[in-house]
Amino acid sequence: MATLKAVRGTRDLLPPETELWNRIETTARAVFARYNFGEIRTPIFEDTGLFARGVGEETDIVSKEMFTWEDGERFDQGTFVRSWLEEVKAEGRFVGGSGGQFSEVLRESGVYWVGRPITGQPEFVTFGEEVTSRAIQSLLAAKTFGLSPTVIQRYPQEADYLRRNGVNLRLVVPSGKAAATSYIETSGVEIEQFQSKVPVFKSKQSLTLRPENTAGVVRAYIENKLGETGQLQKLYYIGPQFRRERPQKGRYRQFWQIGAEVIGPPFAGSESPLRDAEVLEMLATLLDEMGITGWTLELNSVGSAADRARYNETLRAALEPVVGKMCTDCQRRAVTNPLRVLDCKVPEDQPIIATLPVIADSLDEESKNHFAAVKAALDAAGVVYTLNPRLVRGLDYYTRTTFEFTHGGLGAQNAILGGGRYDGLSEAIGGPKAPGIGFAMGLDRLVLTLQAQEAAQPAAMPAKKLDAYIAPLGEDVNAAALALARELRRGGLSVELGDGSFRLKKSFEAADRVARKIVIMGEDELASGILTVKDFATGTQSKVPRAELRDFLKN
Ligand code: HAM
Question: Are 11 and 256 in contact (CB under 8 A)?
Fold first, then answer.
């Protein structure tokens, strides 16, 4: 059999690498707490419309990279059956119900005996979303069963009734769902199309695995009425995101982000340039505390919605004479959303893109002042940045401040994080005015960066060893060894438990790989309560009373 593998662009994260992941996450949580951020966890999939409206239809993320599926129309059979039974009862088509054990047996296989009509045949009825051979088979099987020796013996009255009157077979489906096949015509099953008074189909919904989390956080802000608290919401998240990108080093289809958003009504100060500077200062601290060195903060302002509209017009005009020489994506973007031309990665288009006007020239006074205030606060806090007038970011919701932190050690995928302000996002997805700013860092890329750094300075991170390895001498002491391990682990020590079937040499080898000390536990040790401990670093062997063992191993 072909072996099953992790899907392209996804991967398993294994120990000891996961230790590094956890260390980064722990550092992030600690820094977020110091800056008064609380954790938010939103669903991993959302209505597709959220991303289409929030991130933007023309972005690469939405137009090419989302994992989207139709959550199919669902048939509510229970409602359909109840609705049909009510109607036929009201019409007096049947009287009573057989109610006996026999009909309960049928019910289990999805077939109803609708009772004895005043005249004519009794009926076996089944209900389906549409006409299927399976539904017809179950009716035919029910008929066979109804006339079988088992039924004659166990339910003589019912069987007699069926034998005398015969049985009609009926398949009820919602109107418009019948499919007349020759099989149905020859099976003797009557198909009834029934129009229920209550809806029996729950409508389809397009769902998408989240490609990013800002839209989800803003949706949650609106849905949970967080704006009504009047407080600035400072929320962080850690979790997987999904984009169908071409996998390469640092770029995966399931990747992880650590992100944060500051959002609230304008009167809570959410529009203030101080918030932008504070987020950027926090990021500088966060990266420093994670041990990431040599990063660059690239900064730009993409202006207000009005500035961007103006810039889009300027770009459209500038593109007109040259767009014919560009890729087909750019030709489309030049019409629908010229700003997205700046995302183009096609090498031949880059010289043309370099000549296009920059957004800084389209900013109005207010946007310029806002950006100046962000820069002044960064200067005051000593956070170093580089201005990059081409940094427009690949998501449509950005307004004003945009930024990326890049790292030279990452190769082509050099952005360790990106973010910016999104003053109109809440309104774009139907919420109140709620300006915000945030960022997301690629956890996979942070790990790659730290691994590269650690490879360059291996001494910086010695492998962490367990406090002890317990080696039972013989399987008879396995149970007692487990009790000792429990005692030590509950006492806060990290302990690995060997197995009594191992020879002593094997236990020593296994212990030396993972632990600082080995504790030998044989029948003698168990009886005397004095354990033999060997310290691998010093080579010394000691006899330690059980009551002192925890403290001894700790040192
Ligand atoms: P983004 O620039 O699309 O922004 O992603 C942020 C970071 O996620 C990137 O800088 C990168 O480190 C990482 N990343 C993105 N795609 C991949 C991938 N395929 N594989 C590995 N890492 C990846 C956003 O997602 C915005 N929501 C950020 C934001 C928050 N803006 C405001 N608030």
Answer: no
Strands (E), 277-354: 295-301
- Contact between 252 and 8 (Cβ < 8 Å): no
pTM, rounded to two decimals: 0.79
Identify the three-state secondary structure at position 416.
strand
Q: Which residues line ligand 1 (CB under 6 A)?
A: 212-214, 243, 245, 250-252, 255, 257, 259, 261, 394-395, 415-420, 422, 438-442, 444-445
CA pair distance 103, 155, nearest whole angstrom = 10
pLDDT tens, residue by residue, 29-54: 999 999 999 999 999 999 999 999 99
Structure tokens at 549: 């063992």
Nearest CA residue ID for atom 1, ligand 1: 418
Q: Convert 155-168 to b/e letters by CB count within 10 Å (16 or more is b).
A: beebbeebeeeebb
Per-residue pLDDT tens for 183-192?
Answer: 566 678 988 9
Distance from the alpha carbon of residue 388 to the mean position of ligand 1, in angstroms? 18
Q: Which residues contact 460 (CB under 8 A, 6 or more apart)?
A: 453, 454
Mutate to test the pocket of ligand 1, among 257, 261, 406, 426 (most ligand atoms within 8 A of CB): 257
How many whole angstroms from 252 Cα to the centroid of ligand 1? Answer: 11
Other CB atoms closer than 10 Å to residue 394's CB: what's the count? 16
Of 19-23, 176-180, 399-403, minimum mean pLDDT range: 176-180
